[in-house]
Structure formats: structure tokens, C-alpha cells
Structure of Phosphoserine aminotransferase:
Amino acid sequence: MNRPYNFSAGPAAIPEEVLKTAASEMLDWHGSGMSVMEMSHRGKEFISICEKAESDFRELMAVPKEFHILFMQGGGLAENAIVPLNLSRGATVDFVVSGSWSKKSRKEAGKYAAEVHTAASGEDSQFTTLPDPASWQLSRGASYLHICSNETIDGVEFQQLPDLKALGSDAPLVIDFSSHVASRSVDWSKVGLAFGGAQKNLGPAGLTLVVVRDDLLGHALPACPSAFDYKVVADNASMFNTPPTWGIYVAGLTFEWLKNQREGDAVGIAAMERRNVAKAQSLYDFIDASGFYVNKVAANCRSRMNIPFFLKDESRNDDFLAGAKAHQLLQLKGHKSVGGMRASLYNAMPMAGVDALIAYMREFEKKHS
Ligand code: PMP
């Protein structure tokens, strides 16, 4: 069976091999007589799944030993509260607002942090550019600075993480990497904490991945729920409460899949990154060369993962989407807040899917211009 290409921004496509393995192990995981969903999280079977998922992610993403990897729940939006509950310590927190998700994060932090300061914003450009780090107004003594390293709705991505030390700040950098985790490497020397929901690049919804530097543990506000206190979660190896076992298992299968990816002489995340650069470049080049479609994001800020684009004649939007579906190209409708179209090219999207999308876009353009 040829499955359609699925361009959803999330929950998003999962590699077919991962789905097939999960299906084949559904009734009986490795001779245990149980589905992973039916196992005690404290039994040796699930503990082996969880430990392997964690060590595979650490290896894949080269996470240094002074960071904990936590499997939590609540998604990115819960982290918008959990981060200030753990890290704000009664001081000001800084935000760079680069799109819809960081804007949401800033608002939520206002409920928990003593003060929220906007160090920079891309709102004046309708989030088509990222504010240059050299222009950021960092607060003195901020407990952390939050950025969204890939804005899923606006389609802007930091191509390099800011070096806060070089900008004269000791604040740890917090990144929301929900929509590009595992699509590229991370320079952990610049990061204090990273969080992301799993449902774009790692597996099913319900699992949140947190990577946190050890010195940031143990500073939660008294009101922080125990299940959301990073130190409690770390001390209990993500098993203070019942973790999202199915999500961890499928993410673990995805990490195995990632470890086996090759692109020329690159392996794992480096291979993924090379492929993601090529996929995105191909679609942006096509859009830029066409007089029919447009992407408004400045070239050096464009996301490799989420590519919003517009038909110059928006009255054809419904036709475009109906035709796409007939061509087995699914979930291309743009986010309701920006309209138009959006193609999300996460790790599970092969180059052949991008080629098929471009062929359809070319055909649609020819027919209507
Ligand atoms: N941050 C980013 C960058 C996202 O893309 C999303 C979801 N699209 C969220 C946060 C919110 O995630 P959730 O719905 O899992 O809470």
C-alpha cells in the first residue's frame, strides 16, 4: 500500500518503518505476552524500553552528561508554565518574541514569574525576520531567556542559537525546540534547558521531552506541582508518576530509525540535517522562482521544517487543497491565524514527498495562470 504524503504540522507523519514495527509488536512485545501499553512502567520490560530510548537520544543528539533527559507530559503549552515554575526563582525572565509560540510562552510566564521582559520582538515585521541578537535588550540578573528556536506557525527558525555569554549575560538559555527537535544538531554549550512535544518529529502526542542542565534542578517555586518539578522527575528517572509509556516506546523506535539514517557519509542526525536542508531548499527555490506562490520570510530566517506559503490569488485556496488531496498530498492547509498553506517537512517526510508536492504545485500553477 502506498500511503499519501502527510504534510501536517503536528501531530505529524511518523516513519513508516516505525509504524510497522509498532504494529508487529502490538500484541506481544518481544515475547513478553503484553503490548507495551499493558506493561507496568516499573517492570523490567518497560524500564529497558525507557532506558534505551534515553540513551539513544543522548547518543543521537550528543547530549552532554551534565544534562538530564526527562520524559514528561503536558506538551509545549504546559512547559510554558513548568519552566517559570522551576527556573524563574522570583526574578525577571527575558523573552525574545519571534512568532506565535514564543508570544504564547511569554504570556503564560507572566502568571508565574515576578516580571516578564521582552528583550526583542519580530512582531513589527509580522514575524518574517528574527531580531538580531546584537540588538537584544537583556535584563540584568534575569533568571533565564526564552526563545522558540523554530516557530511552527510563522516558519522562522534560528539557524544558530544565540550565545548569551558573548552578549554579556549569565542567564541560561531556554529553547522551545518542539518543531525541529532531532532535525539538526544542538550546540548544548549555549543551552540551559530545551523542551519539545513529541508529536512532530519524535512520535505520538502525549510525550514531552525536556533536556535540562543539572545546575537548574532544585530551584522550583513552592507552588510547583511535584509531578512538574524537574528535580523530582529527574530523581525518579521520569517515573515519579506514570510516564507516557506508549509515547516513550514509539519515540524510542524513532530514535533507532534515526540512528540508521544515512546521507552520503553522514549518519544519524547529521544525515537527517543534510536531507532536511535539501528538502527545504528544493521547495523554497521552487516557490521563489514561481510568480504564483509566495513565502514571505527573510531568506536567512526560513524554517527547514515548516514552510508557510500563499497563493497570490487566494480565491483558489480551496481548489488547491482539494487538488492536493486528490494527488495524495494531505494536510497542507495553513494555520488558521495566518491562512494560506503550510508544508511541514519533518524527518519522516522523504525527498520524494517534496518532489511530489512541487510537481503538483507546478501543475496547478500551469492550469491557473
Ligand atoms: N511550541 C511549539 C513550537 C509548537 O509548535 C507547539 C505545537 N504546535 C507548541 C509549543 C504547543 O504544543 P502542545 O500543543 O503539545 O502543548
About this structure: The chain is about 35% helix and 15% strand. Residues 10, 75-77, 101, 148, 152, 176, 178-179, 197 surround 4'-deoxy-4'-aminopyridoxal-5'-phosphate (CB under 6 Å). The chain has two domains: 17-259, 264-368. Residues 190 and 205 are 28 Å apart (CA to CA).
